[in-house]
TrEMBL record:
Membrane topology of this protein: Lipid-anchor
Domain of life: Bacteria
Upper taxonomic lineage: Bacteria, Pseudomonadati, Pseudomonadota, Gammaproteobacteria, Pseudomonadales
Name of the protein described by the UniProt record: Efflux transporter outer membrane subunit
SUPFAM superfamilies reported for this sequence: Outer membrane efflux proteins (OEP)
Amino acid sequence: MTRPADVCPPSLQRVLAARGSRLLTSALCLAMLSACTLSPDYHRPQAPEPVAFKYAEGWTQANPSDALARGAWWELYGDAQLNGLVEQLNANNQTVAQYEAQYRQAQTLVRSARASLFPSLDLSAGKTRSSQGTGSSSSSLSNNSSGIRDTYSAQLGVSWEADLWGKLREGLNANEASAEASLADLAAIRLSLQSELVQNYLQLRVIDEQKRLLEATLAAYQRSLTMTQNQYRAGVSGKDAVAQAQTQLKSTQADLIDLIWQRAQFENAIAVLMGKAPAEFALAPSTTIPALPQIPLALPSQLLERRPDIASAERKVMAANANIGVARAAYFPDLTLSMSGGYSSSSFSDWISLPNRFWSVGPQLAVTLFDAGKRSAEVDRTKAVYDQTVAQYRQSVLDGFQEVENYLVQLKVYADEAQVRDEALASARESLRLTENQYKAGLIGYLDVVNVQTTALSNERSVLNLLQGRLVASVQLIAALGGGWEAASLAAEERTATDR
């Protein structure tokens, strides 16, 4: 048997070329038609935006030289050990790792949605073995006496859904907005955990200072007890003075012991935030407390771009807006262009040959004529979701402004209180000095000294507790201001992720 040529004759090539040209022209026209979309034009929802913060008096304006503006806001505290702990948190925290994995999942949805805009190419090859009953008619007998036939096939298919109504692109827009929201959520949880670690660290350092204060006070109380016991043996003081001195000493010792578990809790919390087991981490005591920093403020309007939780809420509004277009597109027909071709033969030896080829090409139009209101319900649902996300965005903005105002007034009040408490502490120290001199001169009894000592110690600890509150409030204010994060980083990080 003569084997036909495997190449197309010139006439057939011209026919295929003409058909391919017409298909290409049709595809280009469809691509131009696909520029239309059915989702509403997106505009950032209106939200309350004050001109200035109510309690911003006394704060400086942020500028690019500030650590807060650069993003490494914890550097404002000037503590190298704290900087290292935060870097370990950024690298090893498991909650951050969870949100990072969620963001990567969102990225895969973007890639999948983008791929749906392009044609898909499928290749299949196989062998089938079939049998059909011959019946009673002799004319239906197969050439194969057993009635079993082998079929070899190889097929290449191309299909493409024309995005006439923007359904695919709106789906892509929705996934891109959701991915940016996920990235903002990652930034928000990272900022929250950084804030938690810095607060724990600062409180631990205040406890170290309280421990040094109590140890020095215990030494003074021990000397007072020894002096009172000597006076009692000499008949100068009564037994009640000795009892009072012992009570004061033991109460202070108990306060010192109580600090041990408080410090351990902060130390363990820092370890877990860095992704370590508490048993594997220890933080040596320090002789200094980081200074209260000067916190630069941005304008209220900039808060919308500085807080990742607000940026995330807005991206969710964008995704909900795009999903309205996807739902509306369901009312219109879907157009799919497909082409396929290959070879099919019952003989393996001449399987791939010109006589055994086959091909098909053509569009497919599909539209739902009746669905008992299912599409209408889906459109209404997406509109309701949009309204929900708008309300959530506005509430996020209000919460952001509230947090900033709360911490601003808290720091302002703490600053005024600190001035008064410093004056009270200075008076208590002077009173203690004069009272101890009078006691040593024998002018007053020890019970008078105990009362003054108790007052002085209470003022010392109050000043430290107030410093702790001011440091914690400063961290909370920085976090409320966004920690130097910028919404513009979302697009940059998205481009970087896409390039990877």
